[in-house]
Write a structure and sequence with these properties.
The chain has 152 residues and is of the alpha+beta class. It contains 5 helices and 5 strands. The protein has a 5-stranded mixed β-sheet, sandwiched between helices. A hairpin with a 2-residue loop joins strand 3 and strand 4. The longest helix has 14 residues. The protein starts with a strand and ends with a helix. The structure holds FE2/S2 (inorganic) cluster (2 copies). One FE2/S2 (inorganic) cluster (FES) binds next to loops.
């Protein structure tokens, strides 16, 4: 075990981690931050999507040790001043959330997309969210949420 420190959602945090521990496990079990979901642990579903130094990654595929000293944003860190991020608000408003298990990953991936491309085409949305799986919604309302958040 070793003690890891990183900058998480605007604050310095630290906890013990073992050598092979994933960043997702570290977040959930080490730091008690349960926003990033664990569905497949194989990089297949996107439910654990986070921004590591501004880059969208699956936290289950990154070693916790690789995040040491780096900047990490999870779904808990997107909103400001106690307000939902506009992507979170759009998902709620359009009914794009059913069981909600996939939602944190979609929200983080959508926020990343809109930061890069404020008014994405349907193809861009499909491409950007192709790594995120949802078993419930059929994706139509998720598309509505992305378009609403984009203001189109
Ligand atoms: S839990 Fe990481 S991609 Fe599914
Ligand atoms: S809302 Fe249930 S998996 Fe997406």
């Amino acid at each position: 075990m070793s003690r890891l420190r990183l900058h998480l959602n605007g604050e310095e945090v630290e906890a013990e981690a073992w050598e092979g521990e994933s960043l997702l496990y570290f977040l959930r079990e080490g730091l008690g931050r349960f926003g990033s979901k664990n569905a497949c642990e194989q990089g297949e579903c996107g439910s654990c999507s986070v921004l590591l130094d501004g880059r969208l990654v699956c936290a289950c595929l990154v070693l916790a040790a690789q995040a040491e000293g780096h900047d990490l944003v999870t779904v808990e860190g997107l909103g400001e001043d106690g307000e939902l991020h506009r992507v979170q608000a759009a998902f709620a408003e359009t009914g794009a959330v059913q069981c909600g298990f996939c939602t944190p990953g979609f929200v983080v991936a959508t926020a990343d997309l809109l930061a890069r491309s404020p008014n994405p085409s349907d193809d861009e949305i499909r491409e950007a969210l192709s790594g995120n799986l949802c078993r419930c919604t059929g994706y139509a309302k998720i598309f509505d949420a992305v378009r609403l958040a984009a203001g189109s």
